[in-house]
Design goal:
single chain, TIM Barrel, 7-stranded mixed β-sheet
Amino acid sequence: MTTPFRKVKILATLGPASSTPQKIQDLVKAGANVFRLNFSHGTHEGHAQNVDFIRIIEKREKQPLGILVDLQGPKLRVGQFETTQITLEPGQEFTLDLNQAPGDTTRVYFPHESLYKCLEIGTSILLVDGKIRLTVKKVSRDSILTNVEVGGVLSNNQGVNVPEVLLPISALTDKDRKDLKFALTLDIDFVALSFVQQPKDVLELRAIVKNKAKIISKIEKPQAIQHLEEIVDLSDGVMVARGDLGVEFPPEKVPALQKKIVHTCRAYGKPVIIATQMLESMIQAPTPTRAEASDVATAVYDGADAVMLSAESASGKYPVEAVEMMSKIILSVEQDALYGKILDTTMPQMPVSTSEGITSAARGLAQSLPAALIVTFTDTGGTALRTAHKRPPCPILAMTVDIKTTRFLTIVWGILPILIPPTKNFEEMIKNSLKYSKELGLVKKREKIITTFGIPFGEPGSTNSIHVEEVS
């Protein structure tokens, strides 16, 4: 490898600034591992074209690339105003109702009838990403009378958050179901579910997706925090969606919540992505603020598997530079001796099993020998995930015969996934370990490789053996 191996992965959102084969290739060369298709924007045709572009680049660059479809979810919005926008003053009354007529400074259409039954006097309603705050004074079946606590400018179709209420709606809207049906006809790897509130939201999506893609639950609602362990357990991965999380919760709560979610995911051995506003100033500027660089570094120190760019790579002026900068920050942290110590002290314990014992032993050997590389042979990705959970000091080369498994592992900490032909016996397996390790530039002469595998071969979940080999 021409550049140092980076353990924390990068997701880049595609959009107007990056939806060409050349830009996607540039993003891959800059360090992107997974591409996010945001179904809140764009067309089905545009997303399908991007999938085709990514798969072309994947073959050209000879490295697996993950594709994540991000569903919009149930967005609450006000209707429209006679004058496009109004100004709400603190202390005034303002009504949300089911009257479809254009709004004014006293009222506006709010087309979410089921929510009217759930609101109580004193409930807070947030508008414009929390910039405007209303308090419910009176509720009927067709109107909500509120008092404006914090005023501001309110425009057509702007968003509404009700953090104190369990919304009586599915996490999948009609639009999401149409988008999902289309997305599952494409060659994608992950589906991100927005505004998860309860475990049943994940189960509802699982029933539709089945085994066609991995499910990433986005944590952005207080209700999801209340059911965090169950949601993590049911998901294939989690995204800390700090945009709405920072609206639904006071901003000062978000750092601790981020750490809680990351720790829970690590305890369950599930990959976790930190998202939103990571390098936001790079939408307009060629370099980030020092605070943004520190924010990315904090996510890495916390033990996150991946970090994500949104508008920075989708619509910003410097999409490639944003990925390059994120990669530099990650590598800088990973080269810090303190990083490994922090990961060691914060590593949760997993349930005891033969496979778990083998991966623990591999991690211990990698530390004490030391070893340059851990190689895992994996069918479903389970062995590689367990190895990554240990956060070993060296890279993990995950060999598999399943292209879908390689793409799933693009989102997991420390893993370099590669596709190989079926392995028939122990001798061929060790031969492949040495061959691919050398070809990828991961090892040098006299360095040691640790290989974990299962006997008999080809049985998922049978990892029961460990082998140490010195490179000749």
